[in-house]
């Protein structure tokens, strides 16, 4: 019997001397793999728009598209807490739409929680989603769904005023009821300051080493995505090269007739074959 990681367990990770690692996943086999490693949180990120669907940003991906990936991950993850990233314009327009969209990810996608980008301006949405019984992970700093307003993927909080604004956003998200918060693309000192001042776990991505946990994109970690790789990412393995070599070997063996081998197919018994040939004469 699998034991699911709970919100209470995630909150207990706050202030531990050992930071926790989290990662994204977008399909059933990768969710099974990550889940088997004891990673507490799997985020079905809207980054699927770029690393799986081929969009140039996270903005185009829809709730319907996200539900497919959230469902696949939820079916593969028996222990890890599955967090569904709410896509652009699934929660910004109104509180009612935010609650309804979040509910779809829990009821139809099988997720255990949702993630929302934005600080003080999103507190009403967070409060009402939490009131509906749905746990919320916050996300402040560099918020990819706002790249048009931010003029691209730029480090946030580099001035005193900007740093104070991000800190206030983080506090507002916590007060609204979020159980954890992602800090993306902020100077390490800001990540440390926010981590010290909040009572919920902070999860950094390009926010320095002082956060309670870290998160990375699955495809970046294993070197599977050949597009844009952000500066905060580290490729621990070049799986793209290994997969490419495996497929090249397969193609070569088909061409030189060394594949398939006898163990890869079945044959008829001699009597059955003789009977078939007699029938065809």
Notable features of this structure?
single chain, 281 residues, alpha/beta, TIM Barrel, 2 domains, 8-stranded parallel barrel, 12 helices, 8 strands
Outline of this structure?
By secondary structure, the chain is an alpha/beta fold.
Describe this structure in words.
With 281 residues, this protein is an alpha/beta fold. It folds into two domains: 231 residues, Phosphoenolpyruvate-binding domains (TIM Barrel); 39 residues, no CATH class. 42% of the residues lie in helices and 13% in strands. It has an eight-stranded parallel β-barrel with strand order 1-2-3-4-5-6-7-8, surrounded by six helices. Helix 9 links the parallel strand 6 and strand 7. The longest helix is centred in the middle third of the chain and has 17 residues. The model has no long low-confidence stretch (mean pLDDT 95).
Q: Which stretches of 5+ consecutive residues score pLDDT under 50? A: none
Q: Would you identify the CATH architecture of the largest domain?
A: Alpha-Beta Barrel
Domain count, please report it.
Answer: 2
SSE order, one letter for each helix or strand: HEHEHHEHEHEHHEHEEHHH
CATH topology of the largest domain: TIM Barrel
Shape: elongated
Oligomer: single chain
Strand content: 5-15%
Please report the distance between the alpha carbons of the first and last residues: 59 Å
How does the SSE layout of this entry go?
Layout: H1 7-12, E1 20-24, H2 28-36, E2 41-44, H3 48-51, H4 63-76, E3 81-85, H5 95-107, E4 113-115, H6 123-131, E5 136-141, H7 147-150, H8 160-176, E6 180-184, H9 188-197, E7 202-205, E8 213-216, H10 218-221, H11 239-255, H12 270-280
Parallel strand pairs: 1-2, 1-8, 2-3, 3-4, 4-5, 5-6, 6-7, 7-8
